[in-house]
Amino acid sequence: MVRVELQSSLLKAASYQDGCALLDLEFRGGEIYRYVAVPAQTYRELLLAESQGRYFNTHIRTRFASTKIGSASSGVKADSGHHQATR
């Protein structure tokens, strides 16, 4: 997954794995969440959005299952391979 730095007050970076449709988002607070079954088109639209935070809130946050996989501030990325659906 290639990490892309974002220009957003909410989101710091995004990574997308096309084959598995996994979107990892790092928030400015340091938390990293993985969103599952995210179409590549949604990822591309996030990157191109005028407001990436607004796009996230409208098109991703409540539409795709997610799980917290780590915290950038602690340097820990807990990726157990299990994806729990949370909102």
Using only C-alpha atoms, the radius of gyration works out to 12 Å
- SS elements, strand count: 6
Uncertain ranges:
78-87
**Helix proportion of residues, in percent?**
10-25%
Largest sheet: 6 strands, antiparallel
Q: Widest sheet: strand order?
A: 1-2-3-4-5-6
Strand content: 25-35%
Mean pLDDT: 88
Number of domains: 1
Can you write the helix and strand succession as a string?
EEEEHHEE
Count, helices: 2
Measure the end-to-end span.
Answer: 23 Å
Backbone structural class: alpha+beta
- Global shape: globular
Structure description:
The protein has 87 residues and is α+β, with helices and mostly antiparallel strands. The chain has one domain (2-76). Helix content is 20%, strand content 34%. It contains 2 helices and 6 strands. It has helices spanning 40-48, 52-59; strands at residues 2-5, 11-17, 22-27, 31-35, 66-71, 76-77. It has a 6-stranded antiparallel sheet, with no helix packed on it. Helix 1 (40-48) packs antiparallel against helix 2 (52-59). The longest helix has 9 residues, at 40-48. It is globular, with a radius of gyration of 12 Å. Residues 78-87 have low confidence and may be disordered.
